[in-house]
Structures are given as C-alpha cells and as structure tokens.
Design goal:
With 557 residues, this protein is of the alpha/beta class. It has 24 helices and twelve strands. The strands form four sheets. It has a five-stranded parallel beta sheet, with helices on one face. The protein has a three-stranded mixed beta sheet with strand order 10-11-12. Helix 3 packs antiparallel against helix 4.
Length: 557
C-alpha cells in the first residue's frame, strides 16, 4: 500500500476519537439522539481543528445502516463514506466551485432522492470563497431544502459569509485544541507506530502546531521521517530550526548581563546552524511574557512556554521584562521590510542591552503632503500618540498596576527640512566624498559595544545616499530606525561618530526611502529650485564643504 500521512491514517472514525471540540461533539450527539436534526449547519474555526472530519462523522452517524447515531465503520454506508465514495455524501470545494453555475448544478441535484441512505449530505468546504451571487442563488434552497437533505458548510472565515446565509444555519465554533490534548493524541499514535520518543519533543511539536490537530500530525510525520524510530528534542530543534529553552534563557541572561560579545557569538552560531530567526524572536517574547506573568502572579498554571524552574532562572525584574516585551514587539513589525532578517534581529537584541530605560511608544501613521514636480504626493511620517504609555515597576505592581507616566518625545526636537532642501543637496552632492564615506560604512559596527552604540547601530542600518554641504543624507524603509536619529539632540553624538569613523564631523539627515525616491524623480524631471544653502535645522550651525554636481549613481545599490 502507498504510504499514508499520519493525519489521514489516524483521522477520527467516530465521535469518541475526535481530539478536543467536546462541546461540538456533545451537541451533535444529543441532536441525533433527540431527532433535532436541522437542515443546515455551519462549522467554523481555525484550520486543522476538525471541521471537515466532524462533517464526515455527522454524515456517517445520520446514514449508518445499523441505526441512526451509530458509526459502526463496517456497513456499506460507513465504508463508502470512509473511502469518499458514498453517492449521497457530496463534498464540494467552494474555492474551485464558487460561481453561480456551480450552485445551480448543486440545486438541480438536491431534489433527487438518496440512493442508498436516509439523508443526502452536502459538505461545502471553504464556503467563504463563494461569490455573493452564488450565495444568493443558494439562499432559497438552504432555507427550505427537501426533508432528506442536510447542508454542512465549513469555513475558516465566517465573517466573509453573507448575514442572510448565517441566519439560515446552525453555527458551531471550533476552537484551537489545547496543548495537552495534542500531546495525548501524538503519544497515542507513536505508541501504535512503535516509535520511542521524548516527552519534550511532543511538547515542542504541540507548540509549533498552534492548536491545529492536522498541523501537529503533519509536523510529527516530518519529525519521524527525520529521526527514525527514536524521536528526540534535539531532532525537533534541528529539523525546525529551534533553539532549546535552556539556550534561549541563557541568551536572555546574557542580554541582562550586557555581555555583548557572547550574545553576538551565540546568536551567530545558532543562525549558522539553521536557526529560524523569526521564531526565535517570537520565543523570546513568549519567555519574557511568561517571566513577567509569573513575577506578578506566582501562578505556574498561567505559564505557556516554560516551567517554573526555567522561569526562575531569568534574572530580569518585572519592569525590565515589561519594557523588553514592548521593544521586541515593536521591532517584530519591521521584519517584512528588512532586507537582512538576521541583521535586524541582531540589532533588535543589541537594542535591548543599550536602551533598557527606553519605553517604546506605539505609533500611528499620519500622512503629510510633499509638493514634488507639481504633484501633491503623500509620504509617510510617524506621529507619537497623544496618550502616554504606562510601564510596570516594582513599586506599582504591589499597588495594582497604577500607571506611571513616561515623558513624551518633544516634537520640536525633530530635524526640520523640506523637499527643496533635499533637491538642493542633490544638486550640490559630492560624488567622490560619498564614495570615500561609503567605503568606511562597515566600520560603524566597531562602535556597537561603545557608549554611542544606540545611534551607531541605527546609522549602520540606514543606506547612505549622498554627501553634500557637510551632511550625510541616509534613508531607511524602517521608520523605527529613522526615529532613533531623526532628532536634534542626537546630532552631537552622530557628529562624534562621523568624526571617529569618517574623519569628519558630518551632520546626519535621515529620511524615508519613499520620500527620497520621490524627490529624486522630481530632480530627474528637472524641477527648478533656487540654489542656496539647504535650510535644515539640525539645532546648531553647519560647516560648509566643497561639493560638485549630483550623479545618477547615488541611487545605485
């Protein structure tokens, strides 16, 4: 026989074998027992939680030849459903049958009597993919089908279904399956397969599956294929690019002790071995969260990622844990736009060690107009929320989380410039000087362990675009990095960094990639501006330097 994946081989064949979903099973059993079978059901919930399986089991219970409510798995009806060959149980994939014509064909077949069973069962999977016109065509039939027809609709996105459809069905919400039930199910399967295993390996797989039974069995199948007859924690870590909890806690404590060299070496060695960086980032958030919850509640039942003994190894206090969770959540948002995922993670971790007292503030996107080449274009800039964030401190934990206000960033501290200033810099850019600075850009990493590390890392994450009039114009598509240095108070430090690395005390003007490219296109199309000293307010006097014509290659790279 061809190999069967675990999630197919061990698909539940009776209600009693279903993993989780006890409320749904109990309700369907009672409905059959009391003969309260309605004409249409909606099974909704996350992927892999048993919606389609439950629909097949319900069809089996309605049509078993040994009596309604039975699931003997031996009669012709049960066997036909198991094999997917039952003429009266029709499964439809709405993703590929979403048109009105498909629905009309279905409606035409509804009126025919069952061939071998009590009920004709129509299981429509991923029903949210149906078009509005298809839904409307189904309305009348769904409301008043023949007495021998039952519709079972399944979806992961019930919010996309028309309210008129929702009002005609009995809805069952499937929840994510708890970790212990997933582990119990995998334990049962591995024992049937005569495969030895470590409990920790099953715990890891259950965590990775995020409450999905199918996902847990798919991951288990993959892990068994890798490990053979003995599944270990090390096998799971290696296969899925995981870092052990012990190593993650060791990393957290190295961060707490500010051992920069050891931190960088550890994460680089793990990355070289294939660690999943984004998953590690999420794991650190989960561990910090567990540690914070336990430090406040002392309730071990609330822990999700680690046990009490492991959590007690984490050195940070509640206030630090709270701040680091916030910083990691903020930096997590930038992975989509990061060119180098590992570099972004590395910078995020270094931020934790150098900005311990920083309290990340949520940001809203606000648009402002930028007049470029006669067109009113929009560029994104960030604006601090007017409400002040709160932090948890040792003092206010005991007083019921009383809010401690954090000082707002003063908007007048931001560097002031306009699009004409950027066009002036483009006109007066010095190509040779830019190449000279660019050749030394990598030396900024030498300052990552210094007192100026916060600004040096932010500058290193930006891209040098041009050098003109004693100014380094840099860009980034990550607004969080721009905000770190887009202020007058950072200029003195940035000038000192430039003096150390580039042998000249340059001012630094950080702007968004999109804004620079808009200005560049305006420059290329020949927008005329009055050539003068760029009127950029860095908070002090600027020094003049020699400059030459702007060249197209400043956009290269």
């Amino acid at each position: 026989m061809a190999y069967q994946a675990f999630y197919n081989k061990y698909r539940p064949q009776t209600f009693d074998e279903v993993v989780g979903q006890k409320a749904v099973v109990a309700t369907l059993k009672n409905a059959i027992k009391e003969n309260k079978i309605v004409h249409a059901y909606l099974f909704c919930g996350p992927r892999g939680t048993g919606k389609t399986t439950m629909a097949r089991l319900f069809a089996k219970a309605l049509n078993c030849q040994n009596g309604i409510g039975k699931q003997c798995n031996n009669c012709d009806s049960c066997q036909a459903i198991i094999k997917g060959e039952h003429p009266d149980v029709v499964e439809i994939d709405a993703a590929s049958n979403s048109t009105v014509d498909s629905v009309r064909q279905l409606i035409d077949s509804v009126s025919y009597q069952p061939i071998m069973s009590r009920y004709k069962i129509y299981i429509i999977d991923e029903v949210h993919n149906m078009s509005n016109s298809a839904f409307n065509a189904l309305l009348k039939t769904l409301e008043e089908p023949p007495s021998f027809v039952v519709f079972i609709l399944a979806t992961t996105e019930p919010q996309k279904i028309l309210p008129t459809i929702l009002s005609r069905v009995q809805r069952f919400d499937f929840s994510k399956v708890v970790k212990n039930d997933l582990i119990f199910n995998m334990d049962r399967i591995l024992k049937k397969e005569n495969i030895s295993f470590e409990e920790g390996a099953l715990e890891l797989i259950a965590s990775l599956s995020d409450g999905g039974v199918r996902d847990s069995l798919s991951l288990l199948d993959q892990a068994v294929s890798y490990s053979g007859d003995n599944l270990t924690v090390h096998d799971v870590d290696t296969l899925f690019g995981l870092m052990s909890i012990e190593d993650e806690i060791h990393l957290i404590n190295l961060i707490s002790d500010k051992k920069t060299d050891e931190v960088i070496k550890l994460i680089k060695s793990k990355y070289d071995k294939g660690i999943d960086i984004i998953r590690l980032h999420n794991d650190l958030i989960a561990l910090y969260k567990d540690a914070l919850i336990y430090s406040v509640t002392k309730d071990s039942s609330l822990l999700e990622k680690a046990n009490v003994e492991q959590i007690k190894l984490i050195k940070d206090d509640a206030s630090t844990l709270n701040n680091r969770i916030k910083e990691l959540i903020v930096s997590k948002r930038d992975y989509r736009s990061a060119d180098n995922v590992f570099a972004h993670f590395e910078l995020s971790i270094l931020d934790l060690m150098t900005s311990e007292n920083a309290h990340p503030t949520p940001i809203l996107q606000k648009e402002r107009p930028l007049e470029v080449a006669g067109m009113n274009k929009r560029v994104q800039e960030t604006e601090q929320l007017k409400t002040k964030p709160v932090v948890i401190t040792k003092t206010n934990i005991k007083k019921g989380f009383e809010a401690k206000k954090v000082e707002e960033t003063k908007t007048e501290d931001k560097i002031v410039y306009n699009s004409d200033d950027i066009l002036n810099l483009m006109e007066q850019a010095d190509r040779e000087e830019r190449l000279k600075v660019e050749s030394k850009w990598g030396l900024l990493q030498n300052l990552f362990a210094s007192k100026t590390a916060y600004e040096a890392r932010a500058l290193a994450s930006c891209k040098l675009r041009l050098v003109a009039k004693g100014i380094l114009l840099v860009t980034s598509n990550m607004m969080s990095e721009i905000n770190k240095i887009n202020n007058k108070s950072s200029q003195t430090i940035l000038m000192d960094i430039a003096k150390d690395v580039f042998d000249k005390a340059y001012h630094v003007l950080p702007i968004a990639d999109r804004e620079f490219k808009d200005c560049y296109m305006s420059y290329k199309t020949g927008k005329k501006v009055e050539m003068k000293e760029p009127n950029i307010d860095f908070g002090d006097e600027k020094k003049e330097t020699n400059s030459t014509q702007f060249f197209d290659e400043l956009m290269n790279g």
